[in-house]
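Journal club side-thread
Mid-discussion, someone asked how the predicted structure for our own chain would compare to the paper's figures. Pasting it here so we can look after the session.
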Amino acid sequence: MSKSTRFILLLLPVLLVVSACEEGIDDWSGSATISGYVYTDAGHTGGVEGVQVVFESDPDAQNPYEGPDRWVVSDGNGHFQGNVFLGNKEGEYHYVADLSVGYFWKGKTFSWEGGVTVGPGSHFTLPAVDTTMFAPIVGGQ
């Protein structure tokens, strides 16, 4: 491998990181983490795998989240975790953002009432939910 090829291969990761930071794609200091658990029943006896959880803007809130919807899926223990970036396209940071949280599983849904408020570097752990709280999706199968 030539010296110029090695140089390009070494420089490529640096360019990708700089490009991502300039566009505000992945700035961890401007991100917040949201996590939680989904169980089969109120006794929290078994985690539910495959529940889709969405973090999205709460447009009626005082400080609506401006980023894209973030989808995560619960693992075999019912645990889920996702990060949301709190900046916007102009590179401005919002030090507080309000999100709503929705759960989707086997044609049923549940919305976390009251929403979630997060700031950069924060970790918000949602209270555990169970599938008995879920209601059939209107028009769902």
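Post-session note: Residues 27-136 form a domain with the Immunoglobulin-like fold (CATH 2.60.40.10).
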